[in-house]
Every structure is written in structure tokens, then in C-alpha cells.
Amino acid sequence: MSQQVLWEVVKGNNAFLVKRNGLTLSTDPFNNTGVQTYSSTGFISKNAVGVVPTSGKVNQINNINLVAKKSTKFQQVDRKAKNTQSVYASTLAVKHGVHTASRVIRKRFGTSRVGLQKAALRKLVKLNRANAVRRRNELAAAKAQKK
């Protein structure tokens, strides 16, 4: 199905849709803006990258994951649906710093989706700053406990 047809089907009702106080927002992991629009909805597009915070280890340097969308052809046991396309996501933990993650985002979007690339980079920077503040507060609390 084309992306336009999928958007027309899911724009009014989907699992990621949140309507509050007259605003229509999205909790889609591939949507880096948070706004429910055709251009920023990631679960419809074929090439999408989401920047999401992790809820795992507290002592980790960067609690940020990049979620990249992949599509692959696989064969099922059923002969009627031999070459179907399955969409799944691969998660990449940001271990080597924000610069490496930004390089991955730039390569993934290329020059075709510059607006989404900027939104993903903005979200990456905001999450990195929030992690820096969190780490600073944890270090200050640890120093205060030692004294």
C-alpha cells in the first residue's frame, strides 16, 4: 500500500494517537516531533529513525537509543504468502557519543528528508542535555552523601 493510503486510514485513529485539550499528538517511537502529521508520522514511512530515551541502567553514560526501521523479505511456511514484507525495528544504543549518533541520523535521512533529519537531531541534543543535567545532579548528590 502507498503511504498516502495508509495515512488516510490511520490519521484519525491509531494506537499512537493522543488527543488532549484540542491538540492531536503522537507517541510513535519514529515520530521525533510528537505532532500527528503526515510528514512526521514514522510508522508509515519506509525510512524512519526514532530517538528515544532508555529506561534501563541509571549509571549508563548516554541513556539514548536510536530506533531504525528496516524492512526485509522473508518466506513463511504458508505457500500463499511466500514473499511478504515484514517491518521491524533495530535498536542501536548510543555508546560512542552523540556525534556518532548524529552521523547515523544524517546518513539515514540523507538529503531527501531534511526537516525530519533536523527534528531527529534536535531531539538527540535535547536528550543529551537532559542526561548531562541528570549526571551532574547524581554526582552532586553522591558528593553530598560522602561529606
Automatic annotation (TrEMBL):
GO molecular function, one term: structural constituent of ribosome
Record keywords, A-Z: Ribonucleoprotein, Ribosomal protein
Keyword match Ribosomal protein: yes
UniProt GO BP: translation
Domain of life of the organism encoding this protein: Eukaryota
Pfam annotation, one family: Ribosomal_L28e
InterPro entries: Ribosomal_eL28, Ribosomal_eL28/Mak16
Limits of the Ribosomal eL28/Mak16 domain: 5-129
Entry keyword annotation includes Ribosomal protein: yes
GO cellular component terms listed in the entry, alphabetical order: ribonucleoprotein complex; ribosome
Family, per entry: Belongs to the eukaryotic ribosomal protein eL28 family.
Protein name (record): Ribosomal eL28/Mak16 domain-containing protein
Lineage: Eukaryota, Sar, Alveolata, Ciliophora, Intramacronucleata
